[in-house]
Structures are given as C-alpha cells and as structure tokens.
Amino acid sequence: MNSSDDLLIKHCCDIAWEAQTLALPNPSVGAVITRENGEILSRGVHSLAGTPHAEVMAIKQAYFTLTQDSTISHLESSLELHNFLLHNHNGIFKNCVLYVSLEPCNHYGKTPPCANLIKELGFAKVIIGTRDSHTLASGGIQTLQEAGIHTSLSQIQDEAQKLLLPFEILREKGRFVLFKIAMRLDGSYVNGQISCEKSRIFTHNQRSVCDYLCISGATLRSDNPTLNARYALPPYDKHKQPKLCLFSTRENNPRFHIFRKAEEIESLKGFVVIEGGLNLLSALRKYIDMLLIHKAFFCVDLNFTQKSNAMDFELLHTMNLGKDLALWLH
C-alpha cells in the first residue's frame, strides 16, 4: 500500500459521493481501474439499486478502452455484463489494478457477485476502501485472496466508511431521514430561485428514489411547490414519484399526509427527504440523520442574520454541483 493507492481510493469515494443516497437501499460505491503504472482506464459508480455495481461499471468501460469492442456498450443489465465479460475477457485485466470504496459483494442478490467476476477476470491487484459489515454481502476480500489476487485495505478507511452512513442508518433503523436546504452565500433561503440547474437535477434525482418527501405548511403557503421529479435525468427519470407529507398544525390538503407533531415522522419507513428552511430544521433536528446544504454563491440580503451552522452537525463531505457547493453533514 502506498500514497497513490490512498489517493485513488479517495477518488473512488469522491465520485461515489456524486451519487450519494441515489442507490438506496444500497450503499453508494465508487470504483477506478488503472494499469499497473497508475494510468486510469475507467471509473464506475453504483447509481441506482438493481443496476450494475460500481466495479462492473468500471470494468465495462475498461474493457471497451482496452479492446474497442463496442458490443459491451449495448449491455445494461448486470447479468448480461457478467456473462459477456466472463466469456470474452481473454486475460486483458491481468496487468490491471481495481480500486473500490467498498469490499466487493460476495453473494447473489439483484445482481451476481462482483467478487466472483473480479476473481475470474484475474486482476493483478485489488485495493479496497473498507470492509462490508453486511454479513450477507461480505466475504469478497477472502474470495479474492484465496484466488491468489493481491488484495488489501486502504489506509483511509474512515473516508470510505463515511460514504456508508445513509445505508447503515437505513439498515439499522428502517428509516433514513435527509434534510435538504438551499441557501445563498449570505445565508438567506427565501424569495425566489436559489439553486443552479445541476443542483435542481440532483434534487429531482433524489426525489425520484426517495419514499417520502416532506415540507412545512409555511413552504406550501409561500411557494406552493409541485414537488415532482420533472428534472430527473436517466436512470432516474422513469422512477417513482415520492409520497408527500406536510408538517403543519393547521393545513389540510388532500395532496399530503398531514403531520401535526414532529415525532410523527417516526411512523415513516424507508428513505425520507425533508425540504425546508431553518425553522423546520430546528423543529425536526432530533429526527434528522443527515443534512444536505446546497450553497449558491450569490447574495440578496447582506443583513440576513439566521445562521445554518448553529446546530450540532459534523461536515462529512463537500462537492461541486455546477455553480453551487453541496455540503453533506451528519
């Protein structure tokens, strides 16, 4: 293990954060494939539950890069890709290194086991961000080592483990609650559009995969939002629309399931997204697992005094979303 290995695992984590929560109930995972000299051949991300895992997406792209065989470009399902690669790899990965943020799965679920595919393709080396604590899926490291593939864990396992928080919380509690707020550089978050196009797309992608979308009565009265996923891009554009919930002591609206008290959120199961302002954030703080701030770099009110950093959140990751900055906090 060397510093370049850790840098590439960090890169795996960074690209996985770009799809954070979108693969729930699966974890967000990123993968990179290089030649032994360190040249990057491909990258892959697990973008949606039921679709190919990050390793398979990276292998798919690396196969095309190395062979220029476009046949693989038309294959989309995990089973098709596994079968094609097993029969057509011709040993082209024997001098390649696979980096992946999470231990490759070792069981048949909605997709075949990645560990078996990696073993059969004969990679020279596999570097893994962190072990999979899920008993059913774990064991990939042992499978690869028993096959004689040099397999090791990175020195930055904490970085890889941060990625797993939504997955782990959802698995443990049966519910993962994300609060999303968009605000300007001055901290203001009302009166007009705030987020850039890429931020809006990410929000709508999240809406398409979440189970419940919640707002406050104040948001309903001031904005009357449509709360759909109309800006979602493939593979999220043909996914589900979330069930709508409203926190309000006085509103009655047939579009929504009404919550009169904050603690009623505990009745929900699955992936729950709350979109709102600081008052709703404060009222629901004890029920929120993670906070996502979309920060736009312009001001409208230099006298705005409310602060978003007054609560006990820890910064996990930052990433660019077009002109905006996304901050993930726990």
Automatic annotation (TrEMBL):
It comes from the Bacteria. CDD domains: Riboflavin_deaminase-reductase (cd01284). The lineage of its organism: Bacteria, Pseudomonadati, Campylobacterota, Epsilonproteobacteria, Campylobacterales. This is Riboflavin biosynthesis protein. Residues 3-144 form the CMP/dCMP-type deaminase domain. It holds the Pfam family dCMP_cyt_deam_1. Pathway: Cofactor biosynthesis; riboflavin biosynthesis. GO terms for molecular function: diaminohydroxyphosphoribosylaminopyrimidine deaminase activity. PROSITE patterns: CYT_DCMP_DEAMINASES_2. GO terms for biological process: riboflavin biosynthetic process. It comes from Helicobacter cinaedi.
